[in-house]
Amino acid sequence: MKKFILVAVFAIFCLGSNALARGVSEPILRIGVHVGIGTTGYWDYPSESLVGSDDWGGVAADLGGVFKFRINDILNFITELNFGLNVVSRDIAFGRNRQTYYTQEETRTILKTDLPLLIRVWPLEYGFFDAGVQINANFWSTSNKEYHDADGNSLQSVSGDLETWKVRTNVTSLVFGFGLGGVIGDLGFRFILDLDRIHKNDKISYYNDGKEIYPYDEYVKIKSEKNIPGPSEKPTVFENKTKIWTLQFVVNYYFDLKSSR
Q1: What's this model's pTM, rounded to 2 decimal places?
Q2: What is the annotated signal peptide range for this record (predicted)?
Q3: Beta strand pairing status for 29-43 and 99-121?
């Protein structure tokens, strides 16, 4: 990721003052293509040890259309309609006395549409700052857990609509960005911070069977598949406010509409 960021910064400064230079004949409305890719993770994650460490990390990408409205020489309104992908994962080692018995690899995936609504300010001829909100609509999600022994051999796979990953549909985000650009396009960095929790439920349940700790519904599912009676005790319930953050490198390319100023 560090190499990616360095390449992105180099591209901005190499292209900003040449191919993307702003011109005085820029039309009022520009329509183009938007591409964004970067890194993502969680914030406001539960601190309880039963939930596991906040070692989540992954990739977030967007592809769609962009509309830029020129208000005056230093002010624009930017909106986009994108299809987005968010994939995060983490590995957890289980064991005692520094000896690993098995590991768990969990991957969570979201497909969504997002609608940024941004105000763009040009304090410099080629440089801009963005600020605004983004409305996200999550329409598909899944999770998958793979268990491996200490030697890396596969033990079990659990997937589906588990309690630990039931995603809410509508999420609002704050957006901040900066970059270089002009008539034919722009490129820069964008930081997206969700204000709403990503989980549908604001509570999450875990169960300790005396040996290991499980998400409660996962534990019930495993016992059911093995025809073993489920737990008789109630699970431990935690508050869950987990939200998503994203840092992306974004590129917008505008079509030539032959519009007048």
Answers
A1: 0.79
A2: 1-21
A3: unpaired
